[in-house]
Amino acid sequence: MSDVQAAAPRGKKVRPPPRAVVVEAVERVTPGVMRVVFGGPELATFAAPKAGAHIKILFVPPGKVWPTGDPALDAVRPPSRTYTPRRFDAAKGLLEVEFVLHGEGIAARWAAQAKVGEKMLIGGPGGGYEPPEGVEKMVIIADDSAVPAVGMVLEALPKGCPTHILCEVANPGEARALSPGIASNPVWLYRDPVSAAPGVLLEAAVAALPPQPANTWFWVACEAASMRRIREILVAKLGVERGRVHTRGYWKAGDANYPDHDYGAD
Ligand SMILES: Cc1cc2nc3c(=O)[nH]c(=O)nc-3n(C[C@H](O)[C@H](O)[C@H](O)COP(=O)(O)OP(=O)(O)OC[C@H]3O[C@@H](n4cnc5c(N)ncnc54)[C@H](O)[C@@H]3O)c2cc1C
What we know:
- By secondary structure, the protein is of the alpha/beta class.
- Helices cover 18% and strands 30% of the residues.
- The strands form two sheets. It has a seven-stranded antiparallel sheet. Strands 10-9-8-11-12 form a five-stranded parallel sheet, sandwiched between helices.
């Protein structure tokens, strides 16, 4: 057991300290998405993330130092937000993260003006999704925040596994290739032209799905309230077995820093 674990109160999960990283590149992927590439020697031990895994990006307030080395001061972590480690190039030690520039929010604001050379802290990776054994078809349902994770899920599926992908984004300018290596043909749903609230178009598209083959699995990630309604449509209306539906709320309208562990199973 490491020193850190030994010091932990009984039963309490101890997070390893975050890694210091540096911004190596910033690239606008679409008008509403910024890709930030992190590097630095502390990524040498970053574990290859599973599909849909998450990292924590810490935002140390300007003018503050954290960690300070003083355990009492360091017990309070700076604010953090949850993101998808979209691509990790272990050979180069580079980690790509794609931020939706949704407006207000410490992370969205930071990403909109991120600069090469900036020092940041990253926790994780943790969690993630493993496609079930013998999956014959995967239905993927996601909003903008989960488009990076959709790419990872596609890359984790058995080669040639049929998919049906519904992606809701703001407008046609936000549609893009989901994975550079896997061809896919997502159905893009655009909120802006019809002033749709987040998730509404996804919900309608899910309700209109034709019956799916028996061995079909569902991966859903989007705004949390909508995620619950989609789960309900799948299970109660379309009769999908609960166990075949993986759902996760990625953010919640009106809530800052929504918890990262809302699987909608309540
Ligand atoms: C496992 C996981 C992986 C995720 N991966 C990604 C990712 O790769 N890229 C990504 O962009 N997001 C991702 N998210 C979502 C991201 O964590 C949230 O959007 C987060 O709230 C952003 O923090 P913020 O500081 O910008 O906004 P916050 O301070 O958390 O929120 C401020 C306000 O903005 C609203 N808001 C938050 N997110 C959105 C949004 N996407 N669209 C519209 N309004 C929003 C909130 O409801 C709130 O009113 C992921 C979430 C999870 C749980």
